[in-house]
Amino acid sequence: MSTALPPSDQLLYRPEEAAVVLRFGRSTVYELMAAGVLKYVKQGRSRRIRRSDLEAYVNNLEPMPN
Fold first, then answer.
1. Is residue 27 in a domain?
2. What is the pTM for the complete model shown?
C-alpha cells in the first residue's frame, strides 16, 4: 500500500484516500461515514468524500483541553 498523499487539488476522495489524508484507519473513516459524522456522496456503489466535507470535519473537531 502506498503512503503517498493524494493531490491537494483533488475534489473527491475514496474512503481509503480520505483515511490517508486524515491519518486515520480506513475502518474509522467508514465508521464516521456510517454515523453521519463525515458526509459523503454516493454514485452507484461508489462512495466519495468531498474535499470540502473533509475540511469541514477537521474544522469541527474540538481540541483537547490542556
1. yes
2. 0.82
